[in-house]
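Quick log. Single chain, no ligands specified.
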Amino acid sequence: MNAEQAWQSVLAQLQMDMPRASYDTWVRDTRPVSYDNGLITIGVRNAYARDWLESRLATTVNRLLIDVLNSNVAVKFIVSQADENHASSSDLEVAPASIQITPPEPKPRHVTLNPRYTFDTYVVGSGNRLAHAACQAVAEKPARAYNPLFLYGGVGLGKTHLLHAIGNACHASGLNVLYVSSEEFTNDMITAIRTHTTQAFREKYRSADVLLIDDIQFIAGKESTQEEFFHTFNTLHGQDKQIIVSSDRPPKSLVTLEERLRSRFEWGLTADIQAPDVETRLAILRSKAERTGRQISDEILQNIAEKVQSNIRELEGALNRVIAYADLSGTSLTPNLVEMALVDITPSRGDIKPESVLDAVTKVLDVTTQTLIGRDRTKDVARSRQIAMYILREEAKISFPQIGEVLGGRDHSTVMSAYEKIKEQIPTDRKLEQDIVSIKQQIYNQAVSVA
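-> predicted structure:
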């Protein structure tokens, strides 16, 4: 029996054992390309089919070939044009049974997951506690806790870390996990249309037990991508498969996203991730410092945490910069060194303009500048105005009389009273603290982008 005949026997067995749709999609058009030193190379139509066969069927196919040929052989799948690469029967004669080759291990199904991003390495604080708990629940009981799970938050706040943590946990449980960015999903779809492999594309995404898509906001406005994702979502959800997506804003704010997708994202749980407060930033820096193996005092870490308020990514980058600055200059870690190392990436408080503060306050607290400087004394407006006074003093470093002028000519004693009131309430009012952290993040993001 030559390899062509052996492969036909394997195909016949697979056709009986596999669902018809899967067999027709992935297996039917395969054929042997070469046989050399105990290795049978099987040609497939495209990369999707190759990856699917390597991850799902390599072990089964190898066992069937050994049974058919009564010889220890290995199998390899390659993308091949059938007409050009189909070898003749004489090229595929089976080698003697004495050749011993260990079958190759199937490729892992989670090649895009970062093994460093786990729940153990994620620092939990007041701004991400709900999202973290929801992700753990999903990882423990996929499709039975919250499905879909929609995570949203600003850039660099840890959304991707949580997606990978879910993926790693689910993969460890033996589930088929697929993590992609929305851009990768779109590119895969475009390639499938261009190469007439849409069925393979759909099988790739709709055969996942857990589908994680990062930055879903980028499919907004892309009609074909939204259409394909809509059907993928329905198929997976209908089969009780877990779907997790992340975005930089909540579903209702994705105004160019089709309503049918927005509504589906709200079927499960929507959890936001907010900017870390100073305690969380300090904890993140401690964790990062431990991983570097460096002994760094809390004074230095506190200094960095107070200077970098925008996001976790920039916080970790600042720590790396400080360490590198110390190593390259041959000096010890001191507050003065932190000042020098971060001078060009953290704006000085004296550089913060009152206009920037008011702009940030209006965006975070959903009020207008005219309302803040006006005479409206309703509870919510008065509270927003007091917060603005506090942040103008803390971040812009202007005097109480100057703050009064900025906010409509108010008396400096009123400003001073508001400042002291907010300062006193911050330690016990978590909502107030988080609002102030979010406003500061907005201020410093603007300042860094302008710089």
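The chain has 21 helices and eight strands.
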